[in-house]
Request: fold
Amino acid sequence: MKREPQYLVARRGVLQAGAGLLFAAALPPLPAWSVSPDHYRIAAAPARARLAGPDRPETDVWTYNGTVPGTLVRLRQGEPTRLLVENRLDQETTVHWHGIRLPNAMDGVPGLTQPPIRPGESFVYEFTPQDAGTFWYHPHANSLEQLGRGLAGALIVEEREPMAVDRDLLWFLADWRLTEEGGIAPRFGNRMEAAMSGRVGNTVTLNGRASEAESFRTGERVRLRLVNASLARIMALRFEGHSPVTVAIDGQPCDPHEPAGGRLLLGPAMRIDVVLDMQGEPGKRYAVIDDFYDGLAYRLTELAYEERPPLRTHPLDASLDLPRNPLPEPDLATADRHGLTLQGGMMSGMMMRGGVMQGAGMMHGMMGMGGGAAWAINGMSMTGDGHAGMEPALTFQRGRSVVLKLRNETAWWHPMHFHGHSLRVLSRNGKPVPHRQWQDTVLVAPKEVVEAAFVADNPGDWMLHCHVMDHQMAGLMTVLRVD
Ligand code: C2O
Ligand code: CU
Ligand code: CU
Reply:
């Protein structure tokens, strides 16, 4: 097999690991063979990875350029880029650049925006990222299985003026369902699961492996880019003894703030950038806990402090404000208003808090949804990954401001993802959302009503779907048209 460079990296030194420190999770230093930053080659191909730990068996995975997660794509804001995607799988694929505002033809939705890339063929994606921030990429064909077997990577668009931090780290989080033998559990698309929590796995990896500890030095300031690339697992992360400050959500800068209750709520496909002032004691360890699901809390990793004198005694005195991206501000006074109601799934009080497959619920609202659909939006179920002839649920006139009211009538959480646009989240259950939060993936709690606004400035047919992959496949998907 041809050797592919593991990382192709834009030429800029700021994101390198600090001198003399050895951190697996640091963004990789610039390799000598780095090709031009505006041209990437990404091959979707099978490979093997040691996900669960050094003493555990290897897993057959599908990867971008042979690694899990795939090649880190690092672009510069406002600079045109080309990404050549080769399909070395034995089935069709596409790549979707999640969260990037780009021309419709580059969005990677089979049938809707491009023909699928057949085995042995390739496709060139070309776009100029307008927004700096933390994004990711993944297939949009047979998505449940392709993402579930490992096809995913981070996409970072650098700010023109990087934030002053000691280190810029990426934690790419993924959730796997592994068998005893280390294989990926078969049978994607269980109908029961699809009507409940979706395929929540049993092994969470951080940058491609189950992590025992990540190294830090007392006094350093770290920018930590969290990506939840799980099929279905929602995360709520707590950093014991630390107070992360959220500086961006879904790649879009927000007013720096400490998250409610110190917990970072990260639905599938969401990203959160936090700044951490590492004030732990040298030699000590602090747990990072994910306790989203009742009774299923686990230790994601530990913050392990080196036995070294502090880097500094007071936190770095530098701004936590990231420069805003050029997002058009919706005009709420004149906006068109529409409602989108999420329907279906199983109903059960027992499972209301997002429990995972605990007992069977009553089938509810599933009658009348044809073709194996378990979910619907405004009474309509679109299933699969995207295909030709999908009629839009709503059509917006280009340039109009739009307010969408997302009403979750189901008993389940849904990370609702909008292609082509970022939305400003206005309110949740009627309560204003503070801190200027723009999102492409809006996590909606059971029975919650969320209002979000945007300017429909990007022409084309755009997917809107739940990013719990089983939910998308089973009908929680629609198309929004900007004319
Ligand atoms: Cu990240 Cu249509 O998805
Ligand atoms: Cu997307
Ligand atoms: Cu969902």
About this structure: Residues 1-36, 349-368 have pLDDT under 50 and may be disordered.
